[in-house]
Amino acid sequence: MTNSGTNAIIVVLITAPSVDVAQQIAATLVEERLAACCTILPAVRSVYRWEGRVEDAEEVLVLVKTAQEFFPQLQQRVLELHPYQLPEVIAVPVVAGLAGYVDWVLDSVRR
User: Fold this and answer.
1) Which domains are assigned to the chain?
2) How many CB atoms lie under 10 A from the CB of residue 63?
């Protein structure tokens, strides 16, 4: 593992109401080079407070690997595609990673 250049990439977490919605978002982000890769994890459970009530919902989690510089455009695109009024779109910095993988992520979105 290396620290070289990893601060340039992030993992974005997005929850979706279904696999179909998650796949549409993932495919669009990769096709438009806003993401190098999206991993779709079906059947996660979210418990949260919304409009004064505690909600418990089955959702789909999308892990998006991208360059930090593209987060604003990625976020905007997700807002255009997502059916939720307030979707989860949060970025987590990558502090270490395999150098070749980091390079691949950056090359995939910057071409």
Assistant:
1) 6-110 (3.30.70.120)
2) 16
